[in-house]
Amino acid sequence: MKVGFAGSGNMAAAMARGWAAAIGDSLDGAPGGLAFTDYGSGRAERLAAELGGEALKGNRELAEACGLVVLAVKPAGLDAVAAEIRDAGTPVLSILGATSLERLGEALGELPVVRAMPNIPVELRTGVCCWATPEGLDPGLREAVAELLGLLGTEIELPDRLMDAATAVMGCAPAYVSLFVEALTDAGVKEGLPTEQVHLMVAETVAGTAELLAERDTLEVRRAVTSPGGTTAAGLAALESSGVRTAIAEAVEASLEKMRG
Q1: Is 153:122 a contact under the CB 8 Å cutoff?
Q2: What is the b/e burial string over 84-94, where b = at least 16 CB atoms within 10 angstroms of the residue's CB?
């Protein structure tokens, strides 16, 4: 199945790079090709050139040429794109933030639609894709979408009502983790460590810890590192006294308020 991207921004590019790698590795379920459109930014042509895909002139042509359209424009552009693709009958995978299945159905009419939210590591096929479907979705389409999203990392199906919360947690998390890595790197540089080396230390530690957390829970990992009265205990106490938990909770709530506003 050829996959077309209506919109060629950062998240579309990340998904496309992940799927292009799957195509290159001849993985089962990989797209049969990639196509892109934009609104004059030139991103579609650049992505097509980078990934061996095709840049098309408009969204109607995209929908007619592909078996699945990834809706990757700004939410405000939903109605305009829907008007262009609605009559083609091509199923839609929407990655529009804070845009419910109900709202998508209002715009897209009878088109089969799946709502998804990936995060940026899908570019390396190590991301998370949360997704939701309406009642009565064709089982074949459900299976195909699950397989496509699974090629990009971990796919997690959720009720539509939980998609905004998932976006606030996993969608935003790469930025929060990057801020943590930046802060820890800066602290190491302040103590005399070379910037490139301390960044490598921190980034690889975060990557390794993530793999560990796939097998062990957070409390177990913390206990394994933290000796009573030791250096890690002192650091954790400083983080707790600085309100790190509250700050993270407030970040999630701020994201949700923005989506709901």
Answers
A1: yes
A2: bbbebebbbbb
188 in the same domain as 251: yes
Angle at 103 between CA 101 and CA 109, to 5 degrees: 90
Strand partners, 224: none
Residue 117 CB neighbours (<10 A):
25
Q: Under a CB-based contact definition with an 8 Å cutoff, are residues 261 and 168 in contact?
A: no
Residue 4: strand, helix, or coil: strand
Query: Which pLDDT band, with edges at 50, 70 and 90, does 240 fall under?
Result: very high
Q: How many CB atoms lie within 10 A of CB 228?
A: 6
The reply to whether 168 falls in a domain is: no
Contacts of 39 (CB under 8 A, 6+ apart): none
φ/ψ of residue 115, rounded to 5: -100, 135
**Structure-token pair, residue 233:** 């205990």
Total structural domains in the chain? 2
Q: Which pLDDT tens digit goes with each residue over 32-78?
A: 999 999 999 999 999 999 999 999 999 999 999 999 999 999 999 99
CA 102 – CA 125 distance, rounded (Å):
29
Q: Structure tokens of 211?
A: 């793999």
Same domain assignment for residues 97 and 210 = no
Dihedral angle, C-alpha 24, 147, 96, 160, nearest 10 °: -170
Bridge-based pairing of strands 2-6 and 68-71 is parallel
pTM passes above 0.85 = yes
